[in-house]
Amino acid sequence: MNQEYKESVEVKNPRFIQFVVVTEVEGNVNADESVGTRITIKKFVTREGIYPYVSSRAIKKGIRLALERDYGFKTDPFETLSDTQIGKKQEGDSGNFLDYIDQDLFGYMVTKAKSQGEKGGAWKRKAPVEMSYLISFFPIPVTTEFAGRFPKRENPIPFEIEQAKFLGRFYGIIYNYIGVFHKEEVVDKEDEDRNLKNILGEVKNSDKVDQNRSNEKMVILKEEERKKRLRALLEIILAGKFVLPRSTDQLNQGNYKYVVVALTNSIKPLSAFVNIKYQKDREYEIFKEEKDGKIIEKVVERFSEGYQLDIEKLREFANMLEGEEKLYVIDYVGNLKVDNRDKIIVKKPSEIKNLVEDILKNLDLNNFNYYLKFYE
């Protein structure tokens, strides 16, 4: 390992972005298999009840589409790779991290099919972006919508669609090695022609690669390109700029409530401290009005109730932060109240772009020690 990439004894800037998204979704968001004429919803069935969920694959697919639609990036088309021994085509990841941003963000496994006189092989990338399922906080009932298709001159074809409305969350970790690739992620040990020297030769003319920092062990993209990719990803996740894919015909975009973001030097259990509670609030507002030449004060009592972020629980996590670590909450509901002494920075949705730039400014993009340990 080059001295340039060794970790110093004291780590000052955060290396990890951890996030938890609290959102409400409804409908048959991420359809499961069809059972007879029923389109089922993905769900966990436990002793307490039914917990609907959306798979992380579906969330990533929505993010891929947003990267193409809103930011002009290309994503992997999963084209045919090669012939197998029996003459069939084999499809999968291309591993082209220069052209396809999702191969960088979400990782890949490139397989080389066996053919006459050649061995099969594979090389893969450890994804710098990892996400959980979006799962309901509480067990909820699943209802059924009856529908049908009505072809001309034929009998109607009835079917059922399971539907659910739930408040849930998904969480994830973004590591700081977006745009950084170890040689074992780009070469095939069994293929002498696919060694790092040749790979570097193929990409040496790319304006995305940092030629000064790439070496015999690593391919590193320019910092500008790395930040461009991370900026787009953060804006999509924090602003909810993606649509959840589905197999039925209803639009599904998460109704965001809160997004909690932590910049940390080490991985911490953020998701364990992000919860919601049902709360009733009573507020008093004083109005002044003039009547018969006198100023009269009126006190109006207002009540509000509903699910809110458990700020007391989140304070426990905030007290775990050290040094330059930071904790942000994007309040889409507009009901969070924090004390000036809290280590929680509350942001409005209109401040997301500035928040993303603040994250990019404070994130350590040059300390790859955690990543390189995968290959020691």
Automatic annotation (TrEMBL):
Keywords: Antiviral defense. GO terms for biological process: defense response to virus. Pfam families: DevR. The keyword Repeat does not apply. Signal peptide: none annotated. The keyword Transferase does not apply. InterPro entries: Cas7/Cst2/DevR_sub_I-B/Tneap, CRISPR-assoc_Cas7/Cst2/DevR. CRISPR (clustered regularly interspaced short palindromic repeat) is an adaptive immune system that provides protection against mobile genetic elements (viruses, transposable elements and conjugative plasmids). CRISPR clusters contain spacers, sequences complementary to antecedent mobile elements, and target invading nucleic acids. CRISPR clusters are transcribed and processed into CRISPR RNA (crRNA). This is Type I-B CRISPR-associated protein Cas7/Cst2/DevR.
